[in-house]
Amino acid sequence: MLSIHFVRHPRVTALALFVWGAAAAIAHAAEPPLTLEAAVRQGLARAPQIEARASDTAAAHEEAVRAGRLPDPTLKFGLSNFPVTEPGAFSLRSDGMTMRTIGVTQAIPSRAARTAERSLATAQVDAAEAERVAVEQNVRERIADTWIDVWAIEQRRGLLLDLHDEATLAVRITQARLRGGEGSAVDALAAQAELAALDNRLEATDADLAAAQAGLQRWLGVPPGVLAATQDFSRLPVTADRLVSSVDQQAPLQAWAAREQLAQAALDQARAAKHPDWSVSASYGKRAPGMSDMVMLEVGVSLPLFTHDRQDRGISARLAQRDAVQADHEDARRAQREAVTRAIASWQGWDGQIERYQQTLLPLARDRARTALAGYRAGSSLQPWLDARRAEIELRLNYADALASRARLWASLAYLLPAEVTP
Fold it and tell me: Which of 219, 50, 60 is closest to 132 using CA atoms?
């Protein structure tokens, strides 16, 4: 038996790993930044929920094809007028009335019943489609939320990372002044502690970023890579007025319209029960030799005679259920209009705050920290810089939270209308 052994030289292995890593980095860098729209599109293509709802819709369509058709006929066979006592007991030939029969029975539901069955099947198709639209809207929003999670953490990390060079510079200045006999060990230790605290915040942010990327990978199926740096969350794909006026077209309300249609179809079925159903039977009877064979034809009809205690009760029950669904639908419509109006107001409210952060608060905090550090370098106390520094960090974190809050509100509004309705 011939065995071949490969010897892994450490330098060869290291070189291979280096080449592989470089190739992976180049390939990763060659990928375009992942935009929010691209993430939603890729996530929808891989979402098992969408595939499941599509299968439900296909099943409802198949059921609708057979709805309202006549039921299968029934084949019947047996003995008729068979003697069981003497004379001629248990003989097929002793009595001329004995027959071996075979026949077919066809039930014929009323036209109203078959029409109601077709209406119910159509309503079930619409309900399945409404469920698919609602699930697709939910999936789109959840994918957008995970993308926004990653994007918001990257924004926070960048805001904190911008302060790292200044914190390092402050440590160097305090150490230089200490060596020159002008500073104090307390200032040097405070600056080092401030830098360490910032490093801790950055490491915590990196951990949050890894967790958020895992959430986005759950939808994409692959690591998300580099996200697009900019995304305009100050403008919606549809106007706010249209969102308020089109609540019935929004995905959460389409399910209610389908439920109302199903309730109406159930009411139509209950009303159709007052119409009589028919049946037709035909059979052939084989008698003893020398006797004539027989043919039998029967027509049956149901008799809904006691409708007050039977069919009318069912109609009243289905009518009450339909009214209940209509009332719940109206309540859901009002709740959706309120939720949309509130979300729009909150989303619009962030614009002024974010602009104030960008134009006033952040520049003032930056100038305050730089001025305090310059004052320390000129001989003042370090405490003003420490206070300014901590205030700026909190301000930047609040700004990052504001960006994330506006982005999530944007996602909750941007995907309310189904994709086929959104321009």
Answer: 50
